[in-house]
Amino acid sequence: MALSAAQNPGAKFSEAGYIRLVKRAEGDDQLAQTVGSRAEVPRHHFLRLLVKASQAVRIKLEAANQHKAGEVQRAVAQAASAIQTKAAASSHNYAAANALVGAMKAQGRLRESDIEAFARERKFEETTAALAILSELPTDAVERAIVHDRVESILIICKAVGLSWNTVKAVLTLRSDKGGLSKYDLENYLTLFTRLKQETARHVLKFQFQSGGPSAA
After folding, report:
1. What tens digit of pLDDT does each residue of 98-110 get?
2. Contact at 8 Å (CB) between 77 and 214?
3. Does residue 216 carry a pLDDT above 50?
4. Distance CA 74, CA 217 (A)
5. In this model, does residue 78 exceed pLDDT 60?
6. Separation between Cα atoms, residue 135 and residue 77, nearest integer Å
7. How far apart are the C-alpha atoms of 2 and 17, rounded to whole Å?
8. pTM for the predicted model, two decimal places
């Protein structure tokens, strides 16, 4: 059922729909290749798919998507690269999100409530763009923190820019599947976030994230 839907070029999938497809594609090479080959698959789901896909599927997707070759390599390595930065900067979705969030910031209208709303509405690009602008980090660094890195990375970014726990919790939902976060995970993340001092987070942001060094996690 999922495969036939993914093979239908006229089919439209919601955010929740892509979450289900990517999850079901784990261990299913044919479904993974089909989903990854869809032209409109959102960037963050494409990256998640690649990380969990088999080597055979990654090779086929890289061959079929030469313009995404750098993303394939970066997702597999789960590390920053110049190619990924270029791909993120040229992404149409990020261009629109950066323009929107940039205008809000310039007009003094970018508030924490906006970031929380973006995250709760699962607007991945807008959430990433807002955190990148506030933290003065490259978009790809924030994207990587949300999608791939250990949770400490996004907690550090959020603490450094002064976000409250409610907003952080909404941002963390972008890392989770449809089922959301467990109570146990939320309690652990809240403890980590509460213990983290803003001064420490800003120090890490300056000397590890902004310097292009290794992940804070």
Report:
1. 999 999 999 999 9
2. no
3. no
4. 17
5. no
6. 24
7. 10
8. 0.60
How far is 198 from 156, CA to CA, in rounded Å?
Answer: 8
Distance in angstroms (rounded) separating the CA atoms of residues 132 and 145? 11
Which residues touch 70 (CB under 8 Å, ≥6 apart)? 81, 83, 84, 86, 87
DSSP notation for the chain = -HHHHHH-TT----HHHHHHHHHHTTT-HHHHHHHHH-TT--HHHHHHHHHHS-HHHHHHHHHH-GGGHHHHHHHHHTS--HHHHHHHHH-HHHHHHHHHHHHHHHTT---HHHHHHHHHTT-HHHHHHHHHHHHT--HHHHHHHHHTS-HHHHHHHHHHTT--HHHHHHHHGGGS-TT---HHHHHHHHHHHHHS-HHHHHHHIIIIITTT-S---
Rg of the chain on CA atoms, in Å: 17
